[in-house]
């Protein structure tokens, strides 16, 4: 007969032996949930919607975070661990700066001056490329195209011109120009913050190929849409051009100059950005609410949620196994031969912002040269297809609001050649300067 004490000991031993299996099973189950949520989230990023539902990419990412929390695969207390606070703060501050120019009607004035100036259509196209590209290098390219697209559409139609080549040039040049600096677009902001890249060193490396890419945008659009550009049936008519608020525009210009100067100091960029943003919000003439309304809260939400989803996936066994396999197969994008096709494919499959977040989370030890190449090439790759970048989508949606349809094939006619040419030039530049090996 077995004694009670022996039965108790055996029971405790069975419990000890069983516990690791339960823990392993629970961990495997949670990892499976994380992997499924991760895959579905990025499928949503690729599709841009859920069939049958009017839901945006930001909402898809928010639903993914909610599923992680409800399933127990994520914890509220750990959400802050996944968020890249410096990136979010700097992105927010730069949106405030761009919002200052929006409130001053500066973007409206620029677009109207281009659309209604007495010049030939090819000159108008060149002005669109130069103005949108240069503005996007310093200010948020998404806000630049948001403000300018409708006015360009109306101006082109009044002249008897097809607005589509001007819209494509607007999106393409804003993407190309934004590649020149670390604050030109959201993905560059993230790369600069994660890699602690120097602002002016980045400009020296990336500005030349970005400038060439702007020229490429003009040349491709002018050639492919030459028949439409030469079909102008009327000159610019007298039109009431919106006057910018001189004081508010000057205030924004001084803030932008101060921002660039302070970026050369050891102060953290997010602190500099917040300091400038706070100064802009202090005003006797403009309510802070009006400036804050220009902030793209949807983009900030998308960033925050994708940080959580990809950060949690990066901790899973599936992600570890995948990265380990890539390392052993020597397939990490540490060369231009791997980085260029990766940036081109992934940026157009899921969008360049989600693509960069994913790559940086799974490859946190990327060398500096690879970060330069990722920023430049992922931005230029966004011109390939209409869904490749947020700027492209914004241009199409804003054009639709005034009755102009910019279709997928319309954009692809120019997007494919301009992207392949500009990326090829950028790859040669990065290789010859030794930024990244071939």
Features:
21 helices; 438 residues; mainly alpha
Largest sheet geometry: none
Number of separate strands: 0
Mean pLDDT metric: 82
Q: Cα-atom Rg, whole angstroms?
A: 25 Å
Helical residues, percent: over 70%
Low-confidence stretches: 1-26
Shape label: globular
First and last CA, distance: 76 Å
Our estimate of the beta-strand percent is under 5%
Structural class: mainly alpha
What does the model show?
This protein has 438 residues and is an all-alpha fold. The chain has two domains: 15-79, no CATH class; 85-432, no CATH class. It is built from 21 helices and no strands. It has helices spanning 4-47, 57-71, 79-82, 85-103, 106-115, 121-138, 141-158, 164-178, 186-195, 199-224, 226-229, 246-262, 269-281, 288-292, 297-314, 317-328, 336-350, 352-362, 368-381, 390-400, 408-432. α1 (4-47) runs antiparallel to α2, α5 packs parallel to α7 (141-158) and α17 crosses α18 (352-362). The longest helix has 44 residues, at 4-47. The model is unreliable at 1-26 (pLDDT under 50).
Topology:
Elements: H1 4-47, H2 57-71, H3 79-82, H4 85-103, H5 106-115, H6 121-138, H7 141-158, H8 164-178, H9 186-195, H10 199-224, H11 226-229, H12 246-262, H13 269-281, H14 288-292, H15 297-314, H16 317-328, H17 336-350, H18 352-362, H19 368-381, H20 390-400, H21 408-432
Helix pairs in contact: 1-2, 1-15, 2-15, 4-9, 4-12, 4-13, 5-6, 5-7, 6-7, 6-8, 6-10, 7-8, 7-20, 8-10, 8-20, 9-18, 9-19, 10-21, 12-13, 15-18, 17-18, 17-19, 19-21
């Amino acid at each position: 007969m077995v004694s009670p004490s022996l039965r108790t000991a055996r029971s405790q031993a069975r419990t000890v032996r069983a516990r690791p299996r339960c823990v392993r099973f629970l961990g495997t189950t949670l990892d499976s949930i994380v992997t499924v949520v991760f895959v579905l989230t990025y499928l949503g990023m690729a599709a841009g919607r859920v069939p049958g539902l009017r839901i945006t990419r930001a909402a898809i990412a928010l639903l993914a975070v909610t599923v992680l929390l409800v399933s127990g695969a994520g914890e509220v207390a750990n959400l802050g661990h996944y968020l890249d606070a410096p990136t979010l703060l700097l992105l927010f501050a730069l949106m405030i700066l761009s919002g200052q120019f929006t409130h001053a009607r500066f973007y409206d004035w620029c677009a109207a001056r281009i659309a209604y100036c007495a010049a030939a259509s090819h000159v108008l196209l060149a002005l669109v490329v130069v103005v949108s590209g240069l503005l996007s290098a310093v200010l948020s390219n998404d806000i630049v195209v948001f403000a300018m697209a409708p006015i360009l559409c109306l101006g082109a139609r009044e002249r008897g011109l097809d607005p589509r080549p001007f819209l494509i040039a607007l999106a393409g040049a804003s993407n190309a120009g934004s590649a020149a600096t670390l604050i030109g677009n959201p993905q560059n902001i993230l790369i600069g913050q994660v890699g602690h890249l120097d602002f002016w060193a980045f400009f020296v490396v990336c500005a030349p190929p970005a400038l060439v890419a702007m020229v490429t945008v003009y040349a491709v659009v002018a050639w492919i849409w030459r028949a439409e550009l030469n079909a102008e049936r009327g000159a610019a008519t007298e039109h009431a051009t919106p006057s910018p608020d001189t004081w508010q525009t000057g205030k924004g210009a001084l803030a932008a100059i101060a921002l660039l100067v302070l970026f050369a100091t050891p102060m953290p960029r997010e602190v500099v950005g917040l300091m400038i943003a706070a100064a802009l919000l202090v005003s006797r003439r403009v309510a802070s609410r009006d400036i804050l309304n220009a902030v793209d809260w949807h983009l900030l939400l998308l960033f925050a949620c994708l940080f959580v989803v990809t950060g949690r996936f990066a901790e899973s066994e599936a992600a570890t196994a995948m990265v380990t396999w890539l390392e052993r197969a020597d397939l990490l994008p540490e060369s231009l031969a791997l980085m260029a096709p990766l940036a081109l494919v992934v940026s157009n499959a899921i969008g360049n912002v989600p693509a960069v977040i994913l790559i940086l989370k799974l490859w946190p030890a990327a060398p500096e040269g690879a970060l330069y190449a990722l920023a430049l090439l992922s931005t230029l790759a966004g011109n390939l297809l209409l869904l490749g970048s947020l700027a492209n989508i914004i241009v199409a949606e804003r054009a639709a609001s005034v009755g102009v349809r910019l279709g997928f094939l319309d954009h692809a006619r120019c997007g494919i050649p301009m992207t392949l040419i500009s990326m090829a030039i950028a790859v040669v530049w990065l290789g010859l300067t030794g930024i990244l090996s071939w």
